[in-house]
Structures are given as structure tokens and as C-alpha cells.
Design a protein that fits this description.
By secondary structure, this protein is of the alpha/beta class. The protein is built from 11 helices and 7 strands. The protein has helices spanning about 30-35, 60-75, 85-95, 120-140, 145-155, 155-165, 165-175, 180, 200-210, 225-230, 235-249; strands spanning about 5, 15, 40-45, 80-85, 100-110, 190-195, 215-220. The chain has a 7-stranded mixed beta sheet with strand order 1-3-2-4-5-6-7, sandwiched between helices. α1 links the parallel β2 and β3.
């Protein structure tokens, strides 16, 4: 995996992992704010940034296993994993499958459990899926019509996943449910969410906090899915630094 490092080499190691269709650049401000308190490694997960796409349609478990090999090769020792959105999904899998590699988790606007939906919301989603399937069938082999239908009915990430050549991985990720595995996580976990986040709402963070035994949820009223990375980068750095201090004591 492509990566950059910020900070002192003899300090505790923190690994930053970005969200879907993003890169290590998202976490540069947070890593710089963390400064000399840690040796920060910012990675491009496979298929994003400057790291090539994996062969085959990986699941987040495959990503976690690949990351585990990477961490073992770098001989970092137990790390604190800071993951945003998709990077949070991978971090949770890593904690479940390779707990010996982690001493802490900071999940920022993380996904991995189903979004709670009302009956009305589920019915509307089912209706839209039915319309999409019908209109796609009517479009036949007309690729322009099919592409326009995807843009009308699909999320921006769904549409972009095809442009990136990662549709197979995207579908696996958004349909996964880590609920059963979250109960087995023994790693100390910080859950950070923005109250204005519509992509990974606070309700998902609350559900994770209920499932992960040693976890703490913090909700920031002014942030959404991405401003928690930009305007909130100092909050991420502070929480990672505080966690390092608590783990060392």
C-alpha cells in the first residue's frame, strides 16, 4: 500500500485510513496536529489513491487481512487505528480478526451496521428499487439510458464505484452487517460522529456503542460526514492523543 509518514519514529504508531473513494490526503491535517506525540502512517487502501486495485471483489475482511500483512511487515507493534467511514469498516474488521495488532481504535463517521429505517423509509426504498429494475430492463442495451438511470436512482458513491472500477467491492461493503462480530471486539474503541451526518448518521454510532464492549461514543453537533475531517481534524488528533495516553497509563 502507498503511504506517507508524519511524526517521530520512536513514538507510538497511529495508522490513518481514509473513506470510500478518498486517499491519505484527508488525514494529513489530523496527523500534523498529532505531531510528535506519535509516528503517524497515512495509507491509501487498495483501489484508492496511489495503491492499485486488488484482484477480485474484496470484502472488508479481505482488506483487513491485507492490512494485517502490511502492519506485520512494517513491524510497527500494536497500533492505534484511525479510520473514516470505509476506513472505519476495515478497522473494525481488523480488530475482530487480528486483535493482537491493535491497542486502540478511533472510528470516525464509521459504517458497518445497517442504518435504522422506519417502515415508510423501507417501503420507499423498495419502491425505488422496483422502479429502477423495471426501467433498466426497458432500457435494454442502451448504455446511455442505463447510465442516466443509475445517476437518478443510485447514490453518488454507487455511481462513482463504476467509474472507479470498484462496483463489486462497493456492493459487498454497503451490504455487510458486522453486528455479530462487533460484540467480540476487545480493543478500546472511540466512536466519533457528527450530528449533521446524513451518510453515516449518529444512530449507527449509537448501535455500535451498544455492541462494542469497551467503546465510547462522542457526538459533535456542528459536523457532517466530511467536515469532521476538515474543520474537526483537531478533534480527531486530540482523541487519538488522549487514547494513547490512557493506554500507556
Amino acid at each position: 500500500m502507498n503511504f506517507i509518514e508524519i511524526g517521530e519514529g520512536d513514538k507510538p504508531s497511529v495508522v490513518f485510513a481514509h473513506g470510500w473513494a478518498r486517499s491519505h490526503h484527508d488525514f494529513i491535517p489530523a496527523a500534523e496536529s498529532l505531531g510528535a506525540a506519535a509516528r503517524s502512517m497515512l495509507v491509501d487502501l487498495p483501489g484508492f489513491g496511489e495503491t492499485p486495485r486488488p484482484e477480485g471483489g474484496w470484502s472488508t475482511a479481505d482488506y483487513a487481512d491485507h492490512v494485517a500483512e502490511f502492519l506485520q511487515d512494517k513491524k510497527l507493534g500494536p497500533i492505534v487505528w484511525v479510520g473514516h467511514s470505509f476506513g472505519g469498516r476495515v478497522g473494525l474488521r481488523l480488530a475482530g480478526r487480528h486483535p493482537e495488532l491493535l491497542q486502540g481504535l478511533v472510528i470516525v463517521a464509521g459504517a458497518g451496521v445497517p442504518r435504522p429505517r422506519s417502515t415508510g423509509s423501507r417501503l420507499r426504498s423498495s419502491w425505488r428499487r422496483s422502479q429502477f429494475r423495471l426501467f433498466t430492463a426497458l432500457a435494454g442495451k442502451d448504455q446511455r439510458r442505463r447510465a442516466n438511470l443509475e445517476k437518478s436512482y443510485g447514490s453518488p458513491d454507487y455511481v462513482q464505484s463504476k467509474e472507479l472500477g470498484l462496483r463489486d467491492i462497493f456492493i459487498k461493503a454497503v451490504n455487510e452487517d458486522q453486528s455479530a462480530d462487533l460484540k467480540k471486539i476487545s480493543t478500546r474503541t472511540e466512536l466519533l460522529y457528527g450530528a449533521r451526518d446524513d451518510e453515516t448518521p449518529v444512530s449507527m454510532g449509537k448501535r455500535m456503542a451498544e455492541l462494542i464492549p469497551d467503546s465510547r461514543l462522542t457526538v459533535f453537533p456542528v459536523f457532517d460526514h466530511f467536515s469532521i475531517l476538515t474543520r474537526g481534524h483537531h478533534v480527531i488528533a486530540l482523541r487519538a492523543k488522549t487514547l494513547l495516553g490512557e493506554l500507556a497509563s
